TrEMBL record:
InterPro entries: Rossmann-like_a/b/a_fold (IPR014729), Universal_stress_UspA (IPR006015), UspA (IPR006016). Belongs to the universal stress protein A family. It comes from the Bacteria. It comes from Kushneria konosiri. This is UspA domain-containing protein. CDD domains: USP-like. Residues 1-146 form the UspA domain.
């Protein structure tokens, strides 16, 4: 059975683990992998920029897309099967709504499954804010598999710097 699988990647260990799992699914059942990076513009680090939530002066949407594409390609090169069919997608994020972007992309691509990482918000923060993976699992039209990597250190972001 050929499957279309969407894997949102943000550079975290849990997202990389989700890609590893999706690759296993693809090898077992065949199919097409769609890797998605959602561009979130960085917040400026200077006092005025940080206070107002603006982006750094030298940031452009093109830089965000280039960084996203590089992250997808580097993660795929480290984990993926060179013979597998894979497509890279870089999308802009409506402020604070990556869950919406993931679900809309899943519908547009008519995927059979979304495999994504979970950063493991604390129970209280997850209840108040809600995690992206939790929101996606409640509204997606397809199967959603969430993988969580447990460790004692902070969730290190992988990929290009």
């Amino acid at each position: 059975m050929t499957q279309r699988i969407l894997i949102p990647l943000d550079g975290s260990r849990s997202a990389r683990r989700a890609l590893e799992h999706a690759c296993l699914m693809q090898r077992a059942e065949g199919g097409v992998l769609h890797l998605l990076h959602i561009v979130e513009p960085p917040v400026a680090t200077d006092h005025l920029g940080a206070t107002t939530g603006s982006t750094p002066v030298d940031y452009t949407p093109e830089k965000g897309h280039e960084h996203g594409e590089a992250l997808l390609k580097e993660t795929w090169a480290a984990v993926g099967d060179p013979s597998a069919e894979v497509h890279f997608h870089v999308e802009d994020n409506p402020p604070g709504r990556p869950d919406r972007t993931i679900v809309e992309m899943a519908q547009a691509l008519e995927v059979d499954a979304i495999v994504m990482g979970s950063r493991g918000l604390s129970d209280m923060k997850g209840l108040v804010v809600g995690s992206v993976s939790h929101k996606v699992s409640h509204v997606a039209h397809c199967t959603v598999i969430t993988l969580h990597v447990r460790d004692t250190g902070p969730d290190e972001v992988l990929g290009p710097s």
